[in-house]
Structures are given as structure tokens and as C-alpha cells.
């Protein structure tokens, strides 16, 4: 029974370094033959035993910055149009570049997987920028390449 790993993010209240103008997001879709151990997604590429890349899975990306800041609501509005759409290929990977800001604010995006027969759909992923790796040698510098 395949299943996927999802990312949850927390708010960062004070940024030491400015949000990058653009961020590259590397979205990984994996099929698991057994449940992986819980790992904290720090934005770097993670390795999961008992997994294999899953190609042909589409994700719609929504910019929810305008609705997120007033209420911290991560739901995609019913009338929302995707900001971008990407499909995994090669090694179960979809790449895209997203603006770090939206309407002058740190951008917030939701990645919504399009259901596909025979594939367990991932929960929505929320990416709130800037994204920091607390385990890096410079934990106050936001990542400009993020793996989800």
C-alpha cells in the first residue's frame, strides 16, 4: 500500500535575512512499500528507505498569501485559480520557481495534488516563506532552494 509524506510548516515571526526574490521548489513524490520513520522536513533533500519515485502526478500550486495573513487560513478558496501546475517526472520530481513575495508580503503557497487512480493522494502542503533550515551552518539565512 503506497502512501506519501507531507510537509507541515510553522510561522517564522522574525526574519534575520530578507526573503529571497525567488525560490526554487523541488517537489518530490514517492511511493512507499512500508511506513517511513517520521522526519522533520528542513527544506533539504531527504532520503527514505523503502520508497521509489512516482512520476506523472500533477500538483496545482495556489498563492494564498492574501487570505492567509488576515486569518492564518490555509484553505484554498473555492474560486481560486492555480498560480502554477507541475507534474512529477524523471525521479518523481517536479521543479518550479516561485516568487518570494506576493503583493509585498512574504508569500504563502498551497500545493494540492490532483487525484490519480491507483495513487494515494497526499495531504495539501503549505509553504510559508521565508523557509529556514535550523540545521544549517547559517540558520538565519532563508533557503532559496527548497525540497518538499
From TrEMBL:
Recorded coiled-coil stretches: none
Name of this chain's protein: Adhesin
Phylogenetic placement of the source organism: Bacteria, Bacillati, Bacillota, Bacilli, Lactobacillales
InterPro entries: GramPos_pilinD1_N, Ig-like_fold
Residue ranges constituting the Gram-positive pilin subunit D1 N-terminal domain according to the UniProt record: 21-148
Amino acid at each position: 500500500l503506497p502512501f506519501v509524506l507531507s510537509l507541515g510548516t510553522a510561522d517564522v515571526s522574525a526574519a534575520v535575512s530578507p526573503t529571497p526574490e525567488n525560490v526554487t521548489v523541488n517537489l518530490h513524490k514517492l511511493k512507499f512499500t512500508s511506513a517511513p520513520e517520521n522526519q522533520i522536513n528542513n527544506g533539504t533533500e531527504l532520503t527514505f528507505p523503502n520508497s521509489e519515485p512516482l512520476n506523472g502526478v500533477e500538483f496545482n500550486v495556489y498563492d494564498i498569501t492574501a487570505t492567509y495573513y488576515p486569518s492564518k487560513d490555509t484553505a484554498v478558496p473555492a474560486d481560486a485559480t492555480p498560480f502554477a501546475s507541475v507534474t512529477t517526472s524523471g525521479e518523481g520530481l517536479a521543479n518550479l520557481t516561485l516568487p518570494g513575495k506576493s503583493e509585498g508580503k512574504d508569500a504563502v503557497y498551497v500545493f494540492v495534488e490532483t487525484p490519480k487512480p491507483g495513487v494515494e493522494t497526499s495531504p495539501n502542503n503549505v509553504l510559508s516563506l521565508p523557509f529556514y533550515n535550523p540545521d544549517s551552518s547559517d540558520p538565519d539565512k532563508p533557503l532559496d532552494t527548497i525540497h518538499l
